[in-house]
Give the backbone structure.
Amino acid sequence: MSQAGDYAAVKKDIAALLHQPEYDDGSAGPVLVRLAWHSAGTYDAETDTGGSNGAGMRYEAEGGDPANAGLQHARVFLEPVKRAHPWITYSDLWTLAGCVAIQEMGGPEIPWAPGRTDFVDDSKLPPRGRLPDAAQGADHVRHIFYRMGFNDQEIVALSGAHNLGRCHADRSGFSGAWVQNPTRFSNTYFRLLLAVDWKHKQLPSGIRQFMYIDEDLGEELMMLPTDIALRDDAKFKVWVQRYAEDRDVFFEDFTKVFAKLMELGLKRDESGSVLNTDNVKGGYISAPKKGDVAGKPEKSNEEADPLKEQNKKFSARL
Ligand code: HEM
């Protein structure tokens, strides 16, 4: 067990678990980035509710939101880290893991600060329906991200995270990866968005997405309707072009905006201490690791075992 506050030790252990040869494209990184984003992306600036504090996905009300389908894989990947560092809150662990994953996959170093607490019950969780719906267009995307306090440039920069990972038919209904190398952070997503003639595709389930077949590689790539909306909306497109042309500018802007995303819902004083009521009154409450709750048999793999089986099936289909 590490010393409380030794975040460097936690980072090291997160980096060590990213390599997962049995899972998806061989890395836990992309799904950890998605966990970090969904943990924060519930923020509503007007009511100052939601955001990265609390680790609400531990509760059914938030964890069971269909928009969060599949993120149990990310949480299971992180359980050994929680076991090794039980003092860290889940909310800090999930956000830190996203930042570490981005950097380890060749992305920029995202400034990250600790101090999030884990809610002790589900009474303060945001309502479902605050995360974006990929089947919609530019108006919806603006509605969702303006609510969190982001502008058009920040929306496009954040969307560059779709350079990582893939869609899973059994999670979101969409299927496939955006780029050929989905475990390497780069600006390829923006370049492909502009360079390729994306065609409509209807999946057997009836879901509509966009596709392109790379003839040389014999690989099919995909875009969500919300991704295509960034290309087709004149104000978003300016930023898609900028980031497609200049990787360094994208990395710089992504660093700032992802750090901002991870801070949504937190108020800090000048020394960095979190001033939210729960954190001030309750302190740094680190929820117990699943399965280690007193009185219950040690069953830390409750969630992991069936998922391992499922993951094997995913890899077999690839
Ligand atoms: C309009 C906004 C967005 C929409 C509609 C959207 C939608 C989606 C959908 C449908 C998936 C596939 C999930 C699955 O089937 O497993 C996905 C995956 C992903 N998203 Fe987004 N997303 C949005 C913004 C973002 C942002 C802001 C980030 C991070 C900054 C992000 C990071 C990711 C990552 C890394 C994956 C891959 C996950 C994996 O490989 O398991 N997305 N997104």
